From TrEMBL:
Residues 33-68 are annotated as: Disordered. This is Glyceraldehyde-3-phosphate dehydrogenase 1. Keywords: Coiled coil. The gene is GAP1. It comes from Linnemannia gamsii. Pfam families: RasGAP, RasGAP_C.
Amino acid sequence: MSSPSSPSPSGTTARKSALLASYGYPSQPGMARAVAAAAAASSDSTGPNSPGPLSGRKGSISTTRSSHRYSQLYSMAAEQDVEVEDDLARAQKRLRELKTKISSQSKKNFVLERDVRYLDSRIALLIQNRMAIAEQREVAEHLEEADSSDGLFPDDRKLQSYGNLFFLLQTEPRHIATLCRLVSLTEIDTLLQTVMFTLYGNQYESREEHLLLTMFQSVLSAQFETATEFGSLLRANTPVSRMMTTYTRRGPGQSYLKTVLSERINSLIEHKELNLEVNPLKVYEQMINQIEENTGSLPPHLPRGVPPETAAANPDVQAIIAPRLSMVMEIANSFLDTILESLDQVPYGIRWICKQIRSLTKRKYPDATDFSICSLIGGFFFLRFINPAIVTPQAYMLVDGLPSKHPRRTLTLIAKLLQNLANKPSYAKEAYMMTLNPFVENNKARINKFLNDLCEVGDFYESLEMDQYMALSKKEINLNITMNELFNTHQLLAQHRDTLAPQEKHHLRMCLNELGAAPPQVPRKENKTIILPLFSRWETPIQDLHSTFLQETNITQADIMYMETKSILVQLIRSIPGIADKRPLDLMKIAETAATTKDAILVRKGIKVKEMLIELEALNVVDDHFTFMTEEVTEELRHLGNLREKVNEEAASLESVYKTIGDHNNYLRSQLDSYKAYLQNVRMQSGGGNSPGQGSGVGVVTVGGKEAKKGKQQVLGPFKFTHHQLEKDGVIAESNVPENRRSNIFFNITSPIPGTFIIALHYKGRDKAILEMDLKLDDLLEKQQDQVQLLDLEYVHLNVNKVLALLTKTFIKR
């Protein structure tokens, strides 16, 4: 990565134009500057709300866009100053570490979720005994643990070529945007893993986030261009819609859902017996079941199997439903209020995507009504983001354990109401929802205002340009990537090379030609993570930001000295406790104090900044009292003080998010363990066998590395669990045992043969079990496939997923 130490003005201007062009923006210098200027005008400053650093002081140097940008650079440096060790620096370090952990854990969860989806379908075949031995081996390989240790790429030359390719992909998002439209639905998840969690995996780093959003803009633009009718936009399950859903599952989206929805959902599910069913047919069925249970028979005028119209016309059903309608709408209103009040908490990226949807819709359909446009925005925000978390809060770790039957149904009704409100409601399939239409009518104006307000965010083009400068000035940019991510991306790019890079001199084509054919995927257990250094042989690295800005802008050496002096003074104040207690600040005294400390670094900085103050005064850039600089340093310190509070608040919020993501990871792993146990049993029983040294399946005993002879298998268990223990762990979802007797209840679980379990419910002091249930592992997995959430043991209802996890944990390694 050798480069000239001071690139020529023409070279840097060309580089800037190329960067903008790669994002899809105008490459002409005038237009590029206009785009950036417009973006700057519509966005909030990333630095403090202080006067322009070059305004109002002696020397009458006018504030320009360039000087403002350069000043931002110093503000950013002050906020992330690694040389300072104060409360802010420590809080920022903690926050950075948290963000890195969340980004890493999010990727692991995405991979696990994809594995679970794959195994869901394969295990279904196993349950139905329709999978060949070869297919069983394929599934077994999918269950192998990936090698989590760091590895070394065997070929240095190839590694450099991959580094060049992935730098190009990261900094020119249009290539990935096009590729995402070309791949099939079966290929998109693997590509999304690389794009969302590796290529742009630092989810809280502005440069990567903004590059990813730039890619989204390109993808959405193409989606709108090829749309044939308004009603089909963003609705179907396509690679684009999958991308949008995956984006909402990144750290910032998860944080928002946890902060905004968790408390509201938990307060609802506390009311386990609150039945708010409003579907007349279901209410009718529940009513006659209750009558039959109470009286032993049904009157002739209440037959079973009536059509929906008959159920809806029944006066008793109407009387049951009437108060429920009011309560459902009241609860839905409370959810809606919470969401509407959270506007400022919605992650920037999600709001920016909403903004693009509105802008592209207006461009494609200039006659579209505001209501129609809002329905598209709502389709993304509610259908892809909010509603899945409301319907399945346990999957988003917003609640501990599975909500009971009635609250689950209420949450589904609330999600339907919000979706009907955000979209044009259709009652063709569920006519009973018409009775809740007052909620939609009363809130139309509110939701449309909210959806439009979501779009009112500034653009990031100028800050992205500055981020790119910062990236080019870094000595190293690295990517943590697995071997298979490298090879899979390479293979997809090569497959679509002629569409992505039709010209021979195209940089992407040159990279692919240099790499040759894509290597095959390595086995899962050999899929190491490597550190891939990114660089470009076409971009000139910026070795000296000062020189670059001097050449590209009309900033002078005096301007740079002024800003550097201010920056060093802020560093000194942050490093020496109590030095800024007296106001107004005496900048020269601060410099002299630093120059006489016992810290050699502070002494050097103190002497340097004292000399710079004297030189600035001699150049007539500042007055002899340093009035304007004093004001700006004071304002910068105030900003940093406020920043510390915000950093601590954000860190506290992200601690909760990290725990949630970690809990979800544990749940997914327990799911995979269940599948692993079941597969091992099936393979052994069907002759697939286990190799020596492998752990046996659930309930399977090995002797000397070989399966025990039939008829001599050892019974595993019983293993004892108290009612309190299973309730605390979420295995017992609902209990009919009186509170005062639960301490006397315990369960014994035994595995007499592989894949079979007996759960016995006991009461202390009695030898015989009150109740016994014979469970088959494939029956449990089939229930899970059919999304049956609860297992009825008469006295208690068990959570199917938690029971599977408990059986796996108890028997898998025994």
